[in-house]
Amino acid sequence: MLRSDPxxxxxxxxxxxxxxxxxxxxxxxxxxxxxxxxxxxxxGRAAKTVEIYGWVVLIEGATSMISPHxxxxxxxxxxxxxxxxxxxxxxGVWVAGIGLLYVLSGRLNANGFVFATLLDxxxxxxxxxxxxxxxxxxxxxxxxxxxxxxxTCLWTLTIWRQEFGRGETASTAR
Length: 174
What we know:
Structural class: mainly alpha
Strand content: under 5%
Distance between the termini: 36 Å
Number of strands: 0
Radius of gyration: 20 Å
Oligomer: single chain
C-alpha cells in the first residue's frame, strides 16, 4: 500500500534531490557539463568532501607513479626491484584514476556517487586488514590507506547528515 502512494514517492524523491524523469530526459550538452565542472556551481558540501578526498587520492597516485621508491620507503615496504617498480607505478595509475573519478563526481555534485562512497569506503579498512593478516599487504600500507578511507568517510557522512538529514536539497544546504 505504501509503495503505490504517489505522495510518499514524491516526498522521497524530493528528499533525495531527484526530479522524476528530469535527470534522464533533460539533455545536457558537453559545454554545459564543462561549465559545471569548471565552476562547480551548486556543489553541495558533501560533494565537496568527496572532491577534496579525490584530490588527495589523485596526488597519492601521481606520487606513486613518479617516485615509487620514495612512496615504498615512506610506507615501510621492502625496496622495489625489477618489475616491482613497474607494478607499483601501474597501481599508482589505478589510484590516480580513482582519485580523478572522485574529483569529477564531487565537482559535478553527483549525489548518488557521494552516497555510494559512504557505502564503499568503510569496507576498505577491514579488507586491507584481512590482506595484511594473510601477508599480502604491508601493515603500514593497510593502516594508512584504511584509516584514510575510514576517517574521510566519517567526515563525508557527518556533512551528508547535516546537508540532507533535515530534508534539504544540495542547492539549498549552504
